[in-house]
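Hi C.,

You asked whether I'd gotten around to modeling the 112-residue construct. I have! Everything is below, sequence then structure, no commentary in between.
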Amino acid sequence: MLDAKQQSLEASHEQLNKLIAKKREYEVRLAQLEAEEETLQIASLGNKMAVDDNRASAIEAALAEIEQRQNVRRAELEIAGSEMTRDTTTTARPAPMDAARMRAYLEKATHE
């Protein structure tokens, strides 16, 4: 009977040792995966900067386009202004700014 209990105890110890070894294996794998995740996050930071540069370029282009339209409109108004001094019944109105179109353009650039 004592011999059977001894064998059972040894089998339990062996099983416990296997579980401990498996646990250590899992801990090592988890540490490797965490290190890899950190490496990927660091690598993606560089990519985000490139995306942000593209976004900044798109915004810059949109603002330059608006500025150009305003310059053209200002020149048109200056030309019309000289005509308006002769005809006081004509009121030059600036073209309405299409805020919805600008917002759509900027939001489209955000999702790209």
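If it helps when you're writing up: The helical segments are 2-84, 99-111.

Thanks,
B.
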